[in-house]
Amino acid sequence: MSFLAAFIYTQFIYEPPVPTESYKGKTVIVTGSNVGLGKETCRWIVRLGASQVILACRNVEKGKLAAADIQATTSCSSDTLQVWHLDMSSYASVLAFSDKVKAELPRLDAVLGNAGLRTTVFRQTEENEETITTNVVSLSLLGFLLHPILHKTALKYDTQSHFTVTASELYELANFKERKGPTGQIFKTLADKNKSRMTDHYNVSKLLIIFVIKQMAAMSPISSSNVIINCVAPGFCHSELMREQDGPILHVVKKILCRPTEVGARTLVYGASAGPESHGQYVPDCKITPTRGLTVGKEGALLQNRVWGELRQKLEGIRPGVTSLS
Ligand SMILES: NC(=O)c1ccc[n+]([C@@H]2O[C@H](COP(=O)([O-])OP(=O)(O)OC[C@H]3O[C@@H](n4cnc5c(N)ncnc54)[C@H](OP(=O)(O)O)[C@@H]3O)[C@@H](O)[C@H]2O)c1
Question: SUPFAM superfamilies attached here (predicted)?
Answer without folding.
Answer: NAD(P)-binding Rossmann-fold domains
